[in-house]
Design goal:
Structural class of chain B: mainly alpha
Structural class of chain A: mainly alpha
Distance between the termini of chain B: 62 Å
Shape of chain A: flat
Order of helices and strands of chain B: HHHHHHHH
Helix content of chain A: over 70%
Number of strands of chain A: 0
Number of domains of chain B: 1
Oligomer: heterodimer
Shape of chain B: flat
CATH class of chain B: Mainly Alpha
Radius of gyration of chain B: 21 Å
Largest interface: A-B, 40 and 43 residues
CATH class of chain A: Mainly Alpha
CATH architecture of chain A: Orthogonal Bundle
CATH architecture of chain B: Orthogonal Bundle
Helix content of chain B: over 70%
Number of helices of chain A: 9
């Protein structure tokens, strides 16, 4: 056992970049999945809607930790390949982000008045053009606040990566706490780091939502 | 040689899995009940409390919603003994989950109480009911009806969130999973089964909550 030093805090601060890397990667890949899911959920084809719904239900009905362990411990056995921890974590978080964001974006698309689809069709736009030029721009405005709000969940979820050994914020806290036995100050510092990242995002989501309501009231 | 998927390899451990599931359900139920109590208390504190009480509640809600549940769990289980508060793992797990769930529940109940038109509370007061009676007999039911869907999804999230407590050694379903994994080396089958068990329990909870909602408040939308 040794005392807590300044170097320990630099280690914790430095590990934030892995938390950010995980969150950004999962957001990027998750957004692509979410777009596909949102379009499938609002499609005219019943089987496509069902497929997207099954995906959302499956992901939202199972713990992210289970999916992560399945990918990290289970997939290498099944496929006979090495899966490194970072890949497993990014895939797990992306699958989860895809389902949650997909569901949020579906709601945003559905919030656009059905008359808008009809109006687009009336002026001779094809369905894909109506989507691209009429519905999506309006849906995107609605989607911003809940998407930023989900980003907070995503960043908090990256803490699970600690459990497969990625030295991101939570894991670096475990490492430092393990060697100094100063669990209380170390985990407080880790919590404060998350708070400093997440709280401004949560406020931002609230203020965007407030502005949207104000805009609609006029 | 290709890997042979053998779920039969887990049959000797059905007892462990079932017991783990029972523990998980018990921890989830305690956390949800405690979390709802915190939520109701916190919402009342935010809406009717003095300045200090409101401030403390706000700090609690924002801290617990903007930090990961896993870090809170470590803070409570490993950190609090430094302050002389040594909790055993299951208690620390339940308290941690309840505090996390409670922070969200505060917001749910607060928006519920705010969603009831002001005139209804005034009508209660006009009938000569005390403030506390208005809250209990007049505001609470319509508030609960308005936020029941949000309440339900928070309960489901708390049930799923129990998966973390195995990380401080609580003997839940994941704990059973890693034990079986270490005996059989069947990680794939073990975690597929665990995910499937959670999925089934989550669907059952959703159906039960839908049933409760219909019994209490009738069909959603129509009254």
């Amino acid at each position: 056992m040794r005392g807590l030093s300044v170097a320990d805090f630099w280690l914790i601060l430095g590990s934030i970049r892995w938390t950010v890397a995980l969150a950004v990667s999962a957001l990027a890949i998750g957004s692509v999945i979410a777009l596909v899911i949102a379009v499938a959920r609002t499609s005219r084809l019943p089987w496509l809607r069902l497929l997207a719904r099954v995906y959302i239900e499956l992901v939202q009905g199972t713990p992210l930790l289970g999916v992560l362990f399945l990918l990290y411990f289970g997939a290498p056995m099944l496929l006979g390949i090495e899966v490194n921890a970072f890949t497993a974590a990014v895939v797990a978080f992306s699958l989860s982000a895809g389902a949650f964001l997909g569901d949020i974006w579906r709601g945003s698309i559905e919030s656009v008045a059905p008359g808008q689809w009809e109006a687009g069709a009336c002026v001779g736009l094809r369905r894909i053009q109506v989507m691209r030029y009429v519905v999506w721009p309006q849906a995107a405005r609605v989607a911003i606040a809940p998407t930023v709000s989900y980003l907070v969940q995503l960043i908090k979820n990256t803490s699970l990566a600690a459990l497969v050994g990625i030295v991101e914020l939570t894991r670096s806290g475990q490492v430092v706490a393990g060697s100094t036995l100063a669990h209380l100050p170390v985990f407080c510092a880790v919590a404060v780091c998350y708070f400093v990242i997440c709280y401004p995002l949560a406020r931002l989501a609230l203020s965007i939502e407030g502005r949207m309501h104000a805009a609609r009231a006029h | 040689m290709a890997y042979q998927v053998q779920f039969e390899a887990l049959t000797p451990y059905v007892g462990e899995l079932a017991q783990g599931l029972l523990h998980t359900l018990a921890y989830a139920a305690s956390s949800i009940v405690l979390g709802m109590a915190i939520g109701i208390g916190g919402a009342i504190a935010l809406l009717y409390g003095g300045k200090l009480l409101r401030g403390v509640t706000r700090v609690y809600v924002e801290f617990f919603r903007n930090t990961p549940a896993l870090v809170q769990l470590f803070l409570i289980y490993f950190g609090l003994p430094a302050l002389g508060l040594r909790l055993d793992a299951p208690l620390a797990g339940v308290i941690s989950l309840a505090l996390y769930c409670g922070a969200y529940m505060v917001e749910v109940f607060r928006s519920g109480l705010l969603s009831v038109p002001r005139g209804i509370a005034e009508a209660g007061a006009a009938l000569g009911l005390r403030h506390r009676q208005v809250l209990m007999y007049v505001l609470f039911v319509p508030a609960l009806r308005n936020v029941f869907p949000a309440l339900s999804s928070q309960m489901v999230l708390t049930l799923i969130g129990t998966s973390l407590i195995s990380q401080i050694g609580v003997e839940d379903i994941f704990h059973a999973g890693s034990f079986i994994d270490s005996r059989t080396f069947r990680s794939f089958e073990v975690y597929v089964v665990i995910c499937a068990m959670y999925f089934v329990v989550v669907q059952m909870l959703r159906i039960a909550l839908g049933f409760v909602q219909r019994r209490l408040f009738g069909e959603p939308g129509g009254r």
